[in-house]
Amino acid sequence: MGSCYNGPLKLLHMHLEKRNYFRIRGSFSLKICCLLLFIGGNQVQAQTDKLNQFWNEYDFTKDLSQKWVLQLDAGLVTSSTPEDSDIFHNITQFYLRGWAHYYPSERWKVSVFYAYYSNQNVPELNQRKAPEFRTAVQATYSLLKSSPLKINLRARIEDRHIENDDHYLEAVERFRFQIKAVCPLTTFGLKTKAMYVFASDELFFKTKSQVSGPDLFDRNRASLGLGFTVIENIQIEAAYANEIMPRDPTNKMVNAIQLKGIFNNFFPTLIKSFKRKKNAVDQGDGSL
Q1: How close are the terminal C-alpha atoms of the chain, in Å?
Q2: Of the candidates 89, 164, 90, the residue with the CA atom closest to the CA atom of residue 125
Q3: 85 exposed, middle or buried (CB, 10 Å; 0-12, 13-18, 19+)?
Q4: Cα separation, 202 vs 242, whole angstroms
């Protein structure tokens, strides 16, 4: 009889020992993984150049009809360097962009632009000077039509032609996907219709080239800001933006202050005056 009971007890004892072994082994493996992640995180942090930048942009629009709008942008970017934290140390970029916007419905906007970029000492480009000609097609969709909170989804395909050191224009395709939320301050009980807060996040993907590098994932850009209407047809937006650009061997991180002036219907005497009624997709861009 004793041997009949000892057999099951022995099997139970062996099973418990085996469970303890795998539990200890699993705990040890988890600790090793945590240690490797900690070391890897420190290495990523140690190999990241952190830059401070100032992004300044002016937008001028002209309503042609309820469905068509023209726009002209001009922008200037200044940046610090890893050796100098001054946000205005270098002028890294100047650009001019001409847009045409088409509104097929209340919640959709389709846009195209052609632009020239003067790139100098741009952190993510592999040369000191890289003039660029850029065209793009963009679609914006408004998720929420009747809610005070407006959310826009935006997709953009950019065809970039960047001059390399051999004075040859390299073609680089870039794909951008953004989600943006705009909320008027009246939602929070403040008695003002002229101010709003906005937040956005955008993912960038690109093709490989000599100038832009071999990475497929270009960057992630997140921003948080405040906009207000100064007078009718004039808006100002101020925002903080953070960009993370994974690169080999040194990653780039940009902390930027962004200031934008928006001037609607800026050319009333050149083209017959027309004022559009703003729709849901406009409100998702901040035109409340």
Answers
A1: 87
A2: 164
A3: exposed
A4: 11
How many CB atoms lie under 10 A from the CB of residue 265? Answer: 17
With CA atoms as reference, report the closest residue to 155 among 177, 137, 174.
177
Q: Where are the domains of the chain?
A: 1-46, 50-283
* Burial (Cβ within 10 Å: 0-12, 13-18, ≥19) of residue 92: buried
246 burial (CB, 10 Å; 0-12 / 13-18 / 19+) is middle
Bridge pairing between strands 251-263 and 48-63: parallel
- Phi and psi for 212 in degrees, rounded to 5? -90, -10
Residue 210's Cβ-count burial label (10 Å; 0-12, 13-18, 19+) is middle
pTM for the whole structure:
0.78
50-283 topology per CATH: Porin (2.40.160)
pLDDT tens per residue across span 264-283: 988 765 566 777 888 888 87
